[in-house]
Amino acid sequence: MKTLISITFLALGALPANAGISLPDEQLRTFAACAGRLSAQMEHQWMFDGDASEITKRQRAQLIDLVSAVMAPDQGREVLNWRISAKAAHHALLTRATFNDDPGDAAWAADMAALQTADCTALLLS
Description:
This protein has 126 residues and is mainly α. It is built from 5 helices and no strands. Helix 2 runs antiparallel to helix 3, helix 2 crosses helix 4 and helix 4 packs antiparallel against helix 5.
């Protein structure tokens, strides 16, 4: 089945032929990074938009469920590292957007944070 999915993605041009990435591992990494990003988003919203944090909290929980569903038992440390790294990077973007003296750079950071959050929430059914 994994081979069939990989061949389908290769045929569609979604993955380079020499990517060397296991599709399930890439999926897990995406879910873990998104869980980390939404953790940072939720914490940022606690300070500035409490109501929105409840929505983000539910979305984050859904992503954590996805991580748990596709993670092998021996991948806990690696997955936690991915989540923490993504959370730190997203936190840096949000801080840059909120507390920046350069309006252009602040707008860029806000746009990037919003784009990354939207990419993650687009993975969810609801």
